[in-house]
Design brief:
Chain lengths: 137, 137
DNA sequence: CTTGCCCCTGTACTAACTACAGATCGTAGA
DNA sequence: TCTACGATCTGTAGTTAGTACAGGGGCAAG
């Protein structure tokens, strides 16, 4: 019954340093169940192992890619469950991809409106601003 | 002393319908000072005029263009103040434009990562998922 | 022995709304 | 006249993804 599933024993601040994740964010992830409650030392300090590092890195990567915490939660249950994982993951990746593409399209529209707007303006110190008028219309 | 500065007298629900803005959002904008407290009827109902419609439309347009409520607040003080407006507006528009462009660049990076990731996956029902492995790494 | 540091906990704050509970008021129908 | 309905009003809480701060405990060095 010897527990040798974790090699490194990290405190919370060390996990934060190791992953680049904010200290408080780790606690937050534990509160909402994205990260498991880690074991504690006799003094009550959280102790993390390799598996926590891996899981947190995964979460951070997914967040970077724009997945919401709920989506990340979903992906994690796939990881944890391990059943027909690949097809599901593929599907969710594609769904998220189309989401990202929609946001890009949206931002491009905004970009061109802002470009037009800026072009209309001479940049001089005129009290009457054609840009504001254009935008209000 | 006759007040004829507003032609239309709209209730809140009518302002909402006229602008497409959510009813509750209007109250919220009043709470945070984006919209002014409107005059009331004897029964305490809010009454809006043309100037409210115009202002709310402006706010909505700016929000659509991705300005934060704080930025909108700033633009509104320029509108209200009316001093050296144009140069300032030009500047803020450009600042926001570069912001939008940065977000586009970011999303494009995410897009290509997701594309690569999805391409790696066959979409078959394999329990071991190369995508998840790739994403964790 | 006291100062400082690191850890702990709980709570409040952010943005930009949305939603719901409970009060009131005027009018329309029975 | 009584009651029900619809519209408005107010205040408060929930959402997402964290960040920040207040207050308490224990260990170690000076």
């Amino acid at each position: 019954m010897s527990k040798n599933n974790s090699v490194t024993n990290l405190l919370r601040s060390e996990l934060a340093k190791a992953t680049g994740c904010n200290l408080e964010t780790i606690r937050y992830y534990e509160q909402i169940g994205i990260m498991p409650d880690p074991p504690r030392t006799a003094r009550g300090f959280r102790v993390y192992g390799e598996e926590h590092v891996r899981r947190l890195r995964f979460v951070m990567r997914m967040r970077e890619l724009g997945f919401s915490l709920n989506e990340v939660r979903g992906l994690l249950t796939l990881v944890d469950g391990g059943t027909q994982t690949c097809a599901e993951v593929h599907e969710r990746t594609l769904a998220h991809l189309s989401d990202v593409r929609a946001r890009i399209t949206d931002l491009k529209r905004i970009e061109s409106v802002l470009e037009e707007t800026a072009a209309k303006c001479s940049g001089e110190d005129v009290p009457e601003c054609p840009v504001l008028d254009a935008l209000s219309a």
